[in-house]
Amino acid sequence: MLWANWTGTSTVPSRALYPHQWSWDSAFIAIGLRHLSPLRAQLELETLLSAQWGDGRVPHIVFNDAVPLDAYFPGPDFWRSATAGRRAGAPAHLQTSGIVQPPVHALAVWLVHRADPGLSRARSFLARLRPRLTAWHRYLLDARDVGGAGLAAVLHPWEQGMDNSPCWDGPLGRVEPAAPGGFRRADLDHGVPEDRPTDTDYGRYVRLAAEYRDREYIDSAGPSTPTVEGSGTSTVEAPAFLVEDPAFNALLIASEYALALIEAELDRPARPARTDRPAKRAARVRCERARALTETLVARLWDPEREIFLCRDLRTDALLTERGVTGLIPLVLPALPPRIAAALVRTACGPHFGLGGVTRLVPSYDLTGPAFDLRRYWRGPAWFNTNWLVEKGLRLHGERARADALREAVLDAAGASGFAEYVDPYTGEGCGARGFGWTAALTLDLLHDGRNGTGGGDLRTERCGHE
């Protein structure tokens, strides 16, 4: 299905349900594609990053002009990137959304390079993408540091990628839904309402996106920060939804490590006698930043009583108490303190997620939580990308047996479900779209690991600090 979903320059997640290019989908797809075609994996990432805005953001959707406008909502006529995004540097030559998704891209770029270093060097793959990745991280670490502690904030559930999670119910409750007659849900043409977000929640998503668009996609520097424009002073009102999310920031930190490896690799051809080269220093600084951000993540989002990372609502400066799979994703971080890694493993395997016991795969939300729903989008079903990340994190922290068991469960569920978008965490029964892009791609990656015995060592990016 990866071949069937290929457009010539990128891969759509699903021909029917998601007919454009999605940001973190393409990163995961490239990670799998590197085992079949390193060239196509490079093109996947190059196509996505060519849509980067002038302020550094990588939009969460790059629209295909050949797809009818009514095939997906919100479409390009809703986002109006070329006009509403002009001040933020939206490209004029193509249409995109105006929000972002989790920054898996530097990690994907590094892994794709490692699949065929000769081809990568011949095409100057790293050299061409490094400035874009650097600008992307700078945008997140500066413009999105709303809390002032160093972590990036998301201002829409779609940005975090797990958009219908119960983790968002509290902040979303502040948002007045858009009028039902003001939009048409194209997703219900391809999915049953019981599996998808409710009309009320979808109306809240639309309202948040429209308000951000109407602010011309300009980011507030803080929840109540005054800004000066011209000779007058105005206040950029913070969005109702403003959250520091553990998975989003863990993936940013993992990509900081990967970007350090990219910088070190690009510096390698220089004269080896000099150890203080600018690129070498830049790689070292980036590694130090990644370790410092890990400490900040623990300080800001770790809950020692619940033994999981939680989301922080920046409008109230309080942790949200819902347990989601987002809180397990920091397992991918090499500098995570061992006591916290061990606690996360206990949580993943305990009653809240049931891994290795009552569930085959890690569910997207707490099995014991009041909002758990076995079928509804991100409110209980297991997703392949989050399970891939948990598998890598378990292996990274020495939980080889658990990682092996999860890997086999993912492979079984992917094949039996027709490479479904997501599955029942107990049985592996498929839900959502079939022939889903990242499901197929990450299955390839796990199969490759099994055949070659690499077992997830690709995420051992802590070595960048010792080069």
List keywords for this structure.
single chain; 467 residues; alpha+beta; four-stranded antiparallel sheet; three-stranded antiparallel sheet; Mannosylglycerate hydrolase MGH1-like glycoside hydrolase domain-containing protein
Architecture overview:
The chain has helices at 23-33, 38-49, 76-79, 81-84, 105-115, 117-122, 125-142, 157-160, 169-172, 199-214, 246-267, 278-301, 338-349, 384-396, 400-416, 437-452, and strands at 21-22, 61-62, 153-154, 226-229, 232-235, 243-244, 302-303, 308-309, 312-313, 318-319, 382-383, 422-423, 430-431. Helix content is 42%, strand content 6%. The protein is α+β, with helices and mostly antiparallel strands and 467 residues long. Residues 223-235 have low confidence and may be disordered. The chain is globular. It has a four-stranded antiparallel β-sheet with strand order 3-6-9-10. Strands 11-12-13 form a three-stranded antiparallel β-sheet. The protein has a two-stranded antiparallel sheet with strand order 1-2.
Q: How would the blueprint of this fold be written?
A:
Blueprint: E1 21-22, H1 23-33, H2 38-49, E2 61-62, H3 76-79, H4 81-84, H5 105-115, H6 117-122, H7 125-142, E3 153-154, H8 157-160, H9 169-172, H10 199-214, E4 226-229, E5 232-235, E6 243-244, H11 246-267, H12 278-301, E7 302-303, E8 308-309, E9 312-313, E10 318-319, H13 338-349, E11 382-383, H14 384-396, H15 400-416, E12 422-423, E13 430-431, H16 437-452
Antiparallel strand pairs: 1-2, 3-6, 4-5, 6-9, 7-8, 9-10, 11-12, 12-13
Helix pairs in contact: 1-2, 1-5, 1-16, 2-5, 5-7, 5-11, 7-11, 11-12, 14-15, 15-16
